[in-house]
Amino acid sequence: MIALDDVRVAIQNVEVLRGFSLRVAPGTLVGLIGRNGAGKTTVMRTVMGHLPLLAGRVTLGGQDLARVPPHRRAALGIGYMPEDRGLVPELTVEENIALPVWVSRELVLRDRLAMVYGILPELLEMRDRKALLLSGGQQKLVALARALAVGTRLLLLDEPFEGVAPALSQRLSEVVGQLRGSGLTVVISQSDLNHSRRLLDEEVVIERGANVTTEAAA
């Protein structure tokens, strides 16, 4: 579904990804594991087109993403949950969820919202609340919901369990667990595997922007 082949990416003239490769089969849950600064977020931002390639290739279902401008990538069925959540503070919860759906000509907003609220019913009662009034944990849920709304093919979840209370971490694990067998491809970046090892089909370790090892999850 998603493949990065020998990818090199620099930020402010510092090479962050140094020949990194990743191949994720359709319908699988893969953990991208590495310590802080290893390059996990850079991998996801590269897939979304936020960072340009120095070398290598990124494809989605065989389609070369270099030919797709960043603002059109969500419409390909990619849902992205950034580590910093990336919500628009002045928009409501529902408006934040709807944002990427508006760029798709194929998705019906009413149907996508119904799906999201079915998975995360706790968001229904706060759908008219502005994002700036939410707690950090609530904002994480909204960011996940936004990714789910548009991610019909691929979900990129960047450190979803980082900095959240244990109860919310458990809730996020439950939601991710529901995606198993749905046909959706999911890549989860993490600094450790405390929260999701049992959910994963495969673990890919990244260190200093390069591959370390790839192995089946226990």
UniProtKB/TrEMBL annotation:
Gene3D superfamilies registered for this protein in UniProt:
P-loop containing nucleotide triphosphate hydrolases
Q: Does the keyword Transport apply?
A: yes
Give the UniProt keywords, A-Z: Amino-acid transport, ATP-binding, Cell membrane, Membrane, Nucleotide-binding, Transport
At the top level, the lineage of the source is: Bacteria
An example GO biological process term is: L-amino acid transport
Mind telling me which InterPro entries this protein's record contains?
AAA+_ATPase, ABC_transporter-like_ATP-bd, ABC_transporter-like_CS, BCAA_Transport_ATP-bd_LivF, P-loop_NTPase
Chain ranges of the ABC transporter domain = 2-216
Q: Which PROSITE patterns match?
A: ABC_TRANSPORTER_1, ABC_TRANSPORTER_2
Q: Does the keyword Cell membrane apply?
A: yes
Q: Which SUPFAM superfamilies match?
A: P-loop containing nucleoside triphosphate hydrolases (SSF52540)
Database matches in Pfam families: ABC_tran
GO terms for MF = ATP binding; ATP hydrolysis activity; branched-chain amino acid transmembrane transporter activity
Family the UniProt entry places it in: Belongs to the ABC transporter superfamily.
Name of the protein in its database record:
ATP-binding cassette domain-containing protein
Q: Which organism is it from?
A: Ramlibacter cellulosilyticus
